[in-house]
User: What shape does this take?
Amino acid sequence: MVSEARTLTVRLGIEFNGTSFHGWQIQPRDRTVQGEIEEALRRVTGARVRIAGAGRTDSGCHAAGQVASATLSTRLTPERLKAALNAHLPRDVRILEAAEAAPRFHARFQAMRRAYRYLIVSRPTALLEERAWARAIRVDLDALRRATRPLLGGHDFTSFSKQGGDEVEMECVVTRAEWSRRGVVTRFDIEADRFLYTMVRRIVSTVIRAAEEGEGSKRIRVALESRDRRDAAPPAPAHGLYLMRVRYPGLGWLPKERLDVVG
Assistant: This one.
């Protein structure tokens, strides 16, 4: 603990189980992850502190590696701040790491890339009921991979976004989109500079449907080029989606070593 309070910008690495939350972003009446952390900060610092998250996850989605930033006044070192926040947070939210950041660091605006993972299980399972989509996939991984290839690169993803969303810029640059399998769990990993609301979940459901119906990459190209939401499938359930980590210039991927904690 330092002797006197000082103002610092702190960078937080966060994990949460989104089952009981109405998403990340604070809301007046609903329980949100941002709201819980800001309340913990108020109890620790005695002041109201607004935090900025790198990704605004949907209601019911999870995070293995959300990153947030805040500017606050405290006598605590970042490590002691982490311990104090965890003492006041509910069990479905944890601060994984806390570090002092440059004064102008902003978790959302300075993020270069974000990585998401979606989990699917081949049959209903009590252990993964609220953590993965229970759906039999009637094609192999190669068919899913072929259907996914058109997504790589920069595209207008209007067809994979929610009608009435608040996004103005619809182009995203996808740098990774891969399918893998571990036992009964099928994983879809995707990285991009930015994501639209429901984008990952609509990609997952559309790719699976296109592969199963034998249209594969053709269906995905049509959806991208048409910019018509009717050419994409409805979004996969929110509880299968995880924000895994976020990449920053000069810092790399944060939080560290998170890819093996899910699926």
Residues 36 and 90 are 8 Å apart (CA to CA). Residues 199-212 form the longest helix (14 residues). The first strand starts at residue 6 and ends at 16.
